[in-house]
Amino acid sequence: MAHAYDVVVIGAGTGGYVAAIRASQLGKKVAVVEKQQALGGTCLIWGCIPTKALLEHAHALKVVQHAKEWGVTLPAGTPGIDMGQVQARKDKIVGGLTKGIEFLFKKNKIDWIKGTARLAGGGKVEVVEGDRRTLEAKEIVIATGSAPRSVPGITIDHTRIITSDEAIHLKAVPTSLVIMGSGAVGVEFASIYRRFGSEVTIIELLPRLVPVEDEAVSAELEKSFKKQGIKVLTGTKVTRATASGTGVDLEVQGADGTTQPLSSELLLVATGRGPVTAGLDAEALGLELDRGYIKVDPFYRTSVPHVSAIGDVITLGTGVHPQLAHVSSMEGVLVAERIAGHEVQPLNYQHVPGCTYCDPEIGSVGLTEAEAKQRGYDVAVGSFPFGVLGRAKMAGEAEGFVKIVADKKYDEVLGVHMIGPRSTELVAEAVLALRLECTVEELIRTIHAHPTFSEAVAEAAHAVHGAAIHM
Ligand SMILES: Cc1cc2nc3c(=O)[nH]c(=O)nc-3n(C[C@H](O)[C@H](O)[C@H](O)COP(=O)(O)OP(=O)(O)OC[C@H]3O[C@@H](n4cnc5c(N)ncnc54)[C@H](O)[C@@H]3O)c2cc1C
Q1: Where on the phi/psi map is residue 227: left (φ > 0), alpha (ψ -120 to 50), or beta?
Q2: What is the dihedral of CA 315, 318, 323, 328, to 10 degrees?
Q3: Of 76, 158, 220, 468, which sits with the fewest C-beta atoms within 10 Å of its C-beta?
Q4: What residue's CA is closest to ligand 1, atom 35?
Q5: Does the pTM of the predicted model rise above 0.85?
Q6: pLDDT in tens, 246-259
Q7: How far apart are CA 324 and CA 448, in angstroms?
C-alpha cells in the first residue's frame, strides 16, 4: 500500500532535514528517506562537525604547547595528543548532534524512512533498500548531497590514499601527510595534523593557497603555514601517486615543468566533491542534469513538475554553486516555504559567507579586490591587522587582518575578507553589512565594543577612508 505525504524529502543532510522541519512547521505531512543509520548527512557525520571538533583539539594542544607563556605549569615533557580520546570526544559530539535531529523529527512529526530512495515517477518514491515501500508525494525534494571524488590518475584506496571521510577517523597521527588541494577541506586538515605532529605538505595546482579567497588572505595563510612548518607547494600538480604497504610514492610537477619525487605515510585527496544521484533514476524520470548535478531554477524547481532539488547536488547553471551546509539549509527553508505557497525571494549567492577553520581562521563574504576591479568598480580598500588590538594580544592570537573592499563612488561595502582569530564568527557582521547594502561610513558609525576582535572590522572601515585610529 502506498504511504501518502504532502512532501517526501530524499536525504537528511543539512539541506534535507531543514527542508523537512520547515515544511512540517508550515503544516505539511512530511517523510524523509535517508539511507544512513544516522540523520544529518555529510555535515554532521563526515564534514563540518567532525573536522571542527578535531580543530578544537588542535587548538587545545596549541594552548598547552604555549603553557609557559600563559604561566601554566605542567609536568616535565612534551605535551602530546591522545588520538583515542580525541576520536572518542569527537564521536560523542557527532552522536549527540545526530540524535538531536532525530528528536527534532519526532517533535515535528516527520517520518524517517530508513532506506535508499529512487524516483518511481508519477509522484512516487520507491524505497528500494531498508524499509522497502512506495511513498506517494505531492512534492518531492531531492537533497542527496555530494561525495568525495578524485582526479584522473589518482586511485583512492581508502587506506593510504584517503579522503576526508577517512581523515576524520585516523586512530594514530601519521608521521607524514601529503594533502592534494588547498580548498577549505585541505587547509583545515593541514592545520589539524600539523598541530598533532605530522610532517605536512600541501599541494595546490593553482598559484596560491585557498584560491577562492582574496589574494592578500592567501598570502597571509601561506606565510603562517610556512611559519608552522607546513610545506607549501603551489602551482604544482601531482602526476603520480602509488600506494604501497607502508606509504605513498608521489611524483609532483612544478609550474616550470620540473618533477620531483615525494613520499609520505598518507595522501589525502581534497580536490572537491561530486554530486550523488546514483540509483535515483533521475534521468529516467526526465530530470535535466549538468555534469551530474541536478539543474534547478532560482526557486529550486527541477525540469520535472513537483520535483525540487537543493544542496550540494544542484547546479543553478550560473557558475559554481557553493557546497556549504549553511547554503543547503537556507535552500531547504526557501524550498519548503515555496512549496507551502509563500512568496520567496531568490537567494543572493554573492552574500554567502565562506568560513575556513584552519589556523589562522578565514572568514569572507562578497567580492574580492580583484573581482571588484574586474567588474569595473572604482575600488577603495582598507585593512587593519589584528595584532594591534588589545584583545588579540591578550588571546595570544595576533596574526592576520580584516580587509574591506568598497566602491568609492557610493561608499558601498562590496566585500570583507579576514584571516585571523575568530574570523569565522566576525564575518557575520560583514554578511549583514552586505545584505543591508551598508556603506563604509555606516560601519564606522556602528559602535564596536572594546576590547573585542570586532574592533578590527571598525578599524578596517576607518582605513578605507584613510583614517584608521590605532595605526
Ligand atoms: C570535510 C568536510 C568539511 C566541511 N566543512 C564545512 C563547514 O565547516 N561549513 C560548511 O558550511 N560546510 C562544510 N562542508 C560541506 C557540507 O558538509 C555540505 O555542503 C553539506 O553537508 C551539504 O548538505 P546536503 O544536505 O546538500 O547533502 P549531504 O549532507 O551530503 O546529505 C545528503 C544525504 O542524502 C543521503 N542520500 C543520498 N542518496 C540517497 C538516496 N538515494 N536515498 C536515501 N538517502 C540518500 C545521504 O546518505 C546523505 O545523508 C564540509 C564538507 C566536508 C566533506
Answers
A1: alpha
A2: -70
A3: 76
A4: 11
A5: yes
A6: 999 999 999 999 99
A7: 29
